[in-house]
Automatic annotation (TrEMBL):
GO terms for molecular function: GTP binding; hydrolase activity. InterPro entries: G_IRG_dom (IPR030385), Immunity-related_GTPase-like (IPR007743), IRG (IPR051515), P-loop_NTPase (IPR027417). It holds the Pfam family IIGP. Gene3D superfamilies: P-loop containing nucleotide triphosphate hydrolases. Keywords: GTP-binding, Hydrolase, Nucleotide-binding. Residues 38-223 form the IRG-type G domain. The keyword Hydrolase applies. The keyword GTP-binding applies. This is IRG-type G domain-containing protein. SUPFAM superfamilies: P-loop containing nucleoside triphosphate hydrolases (SSF52540). Belongs to the TRAFAC class dynamin-like GTPase superfamily. IRG family. One of its GO terms (cellular component) is membrane. It comes from Pocillopora meandrina.
Length: 391
């Protein structure tokens, strides 16, 4: 089992040990919808003009001029913590926080009283030049509260443009120099570094497909507790189309959910007669397959994003949709193989559910469908990234 499969399996086992099969269908439904209700608060702090607002827009997949976007411009000075909801998951909030030393937050004591750091699961400290003494003071306080924090050097695209004019220009050497300067700048009273190179991220908000933007997104995910990490992972949409690592992380979460959907299918089939021609609950299974396509950013036929793809990529999507449309036949073919792979679920679900035809067929179909969708999604992502490099 993967980590996510083990997590979901343990939840099911705990429920059955405490309640038996009573309410198991509602339990499955609740767990599948849980990620939409988890509250996540991420703080972004730094001086005005460091790119906080543009980052909040970029990580939410919004342009600076889109509805709901955080206002952008050095003249916009954050005077109090301001939250910006994720466009489809309002329980996930990105907070634009003022920096220490601004008129209303002149010292750490005032800052802590007004900003309430305990609210945020993790904090990002932004700078576009040197990190300040106040940034270092804040980092120490966040560490005292045993929270994760990350130093983010923004506007790397501007650094690259400025340095590219030099004959001896090397982007790798330039990035390493900036990273090294950050390390030398971020020291405690004894002169010891307070951060490692791994916790320093060089990004451009206008190019989330480049430099450390994806790595920063992954670091934020890793800093969150399990179920908040689940929520933020599944909420990412735009970034999934730009980062292979984010896409694979999302696919891992979806793979873990298969036991929940297959279990719900089996329980529903036992409770209600779904018809003699279908061996599992088609509504839940087909709904989850459609969710895979949405989560992994498979373009809809005829959409603008579909039209921008090459004929080869379009053909892959068409073939995928045809194959998924024949999912009942695929489930029938996968049954024998499926029985061989579900033995590990018997101690969790019990033999009544785990060995039922409905569970086995649903599990096999979801597993195979997710694999097919992930492969096509990776091909589409690769083409999109190549197109961005050429543009």
């Amino acid at each position: 089992m993967t980590d996510w499969e083990a997590t979901y399996a343990e939840e099911i086992k705990d429920h059955i040990e405490r309640n038996g099969m009573s309410g198991i269908d509602d339990f499955f439904k609740k767990q599948l919808e849980r990620w939409k209700k988890k509250k996540v608060n991420i703080g972004i702090t730094g001086n005005s003009g460091t790119g906080k607002s543009s980052f909040i827009n970029a990580i939410r997949g919004l342009g600076d001029d889109d509805d709901g976007a955080a206002p952008v411009g050095v003249s916009e000075c954050t005077t109090e913590p301001t939250s910006y909801d994720h466009p489809t998951c309002p329980n996930i909030k990105f907070w634009d926080l003022p920096g220490i030393g601004t008129p209303n937050y002149r010292d750490l004591e005032t800052y802590l009283e007004k900003v309430m750091l305990e609210k945020y699961q993790t904090c990002l400290i932004f700078a576009c030049n040197r990190f300040t003494e106040n940034d270092i003071i804040l980092a120490r306080e966040i560490r005292k509260q045993r929270k994760y924090f990350f130093f983010v050097h923004t506007k790397i695209d501007e650094n690259v443009r400025a340095e590219r004019r030099k004959k001896s220009f090397s982007e790798a050497a330039m990035l390493q120099k900036i990273r090294r300067n950050c390390i030398d700048n971020l020291v405690d009273e004894a002169g010891k570094p307070i951060s490692s190179e791994d916790d320093i991220f060089l990004i451009s908000n206008h190019h989330p497909d480049k430099w450390d933007f994806s790595r920063l997104t992954e670091a934020i995910l890793d800093a969150l507790p399990t179920y908040k990490r689940e929520a933020l992972t599944l909420s990412h949409s735009y970034l999934t189309s730009l980062s292979k690592d984010i896409l694979k992380r999302k696919a891992d979460v979806l793979k873990g959910r298969i036991i929940l959907v297959a279990g719900l299918s089996a329980v529903t089939r036992m409770t209600f007669d779904s018809g003699p021609s279908i061996e599992f609950d088609a509504a839940h299974v087909s709904g989850e397959i459609n969710e895979y396509k949405t989560q992994l950013c498979i373009p809809v036929e005829g959409s603008e994003s579909y039209g921008r793809l090459s004929s080869v990529a379009q053909r892959k999507i068409l073939d995928l949709n045809i194959k998924l449309a024949n999912s009942l036949q695929l489930a029938s073919e996968a049954t024998v193989e499926g029985f061989a792979g579900i033995a590990c679920y018997i101690p969790i679900l019990g033999s009544l559910i785990a060995t039922s035809s409905s569970f086995v067929r649903a599990h096999a179909l979801l597993r195979d469908s997710l694999k097919e969708i992930e492969e096509v999604a990776l091909a589409v992502l690769e083409e999109n990234c190549l197109n961005l490099l050429r543009s």
